[in-house]
Amino acid sequence: MSFRHWRSTLPGLCLLLATTCTHQENDTFNWMLSECLECTSQEEQAQCDDGLDNDEDGLFDCDDIDCEGIGCCGRQGDESTDEFCNDGCDNDGDGYSDCLDHSCSKSSTVTVCKSAVQEDEDTPETCSDGIDNDWNGHFDCDDWSCSQSDKVSFCEGNDATCDDGVDNDGDGFVDCKDWSCQTDNITVCK
Fold this sequence. Notes:
Elements: H1 3-8, H2 10-17, H3 28-33, H4 41-47, H5 102-105, H6 144-147
């Protein structure tokens, strides 16, 4: 029996199951057709982001209407509001989410990517908190204040971190091969 034929017999099957089904009688059919049957929210999110057609209806993950509103499904839009810049989703599909997206970090109207009070960004605490403390549109190791601070050992961009043989900022480039080390004030790379 094909899936489509089996699916067309579900209304009758649901009537038979309605007395033993734990779901409300009115939504038994929808429950039977859903991408995720009796899932916890964590399982729903996993099934709506696993690249599989879990309910075999020809639609995958966020393209399946059953996933609407689960995880990042249905959360497409301009990533330049506090809501979209704080939801863990790449809303505009450019490969960056939340404060890592310049639409969020450089927006004058987005407040979730900035500290409440403007302060120096050059300490281990301010260079690892995921927000723009000095309000210059850059944060943490992507901010020159962090990468060139002698106080911040995990950002590449000072004489000590540009000569330690470690990819301190995790961008795939080590020491003098990292653009953060290719500035006039880095003497070990001249």
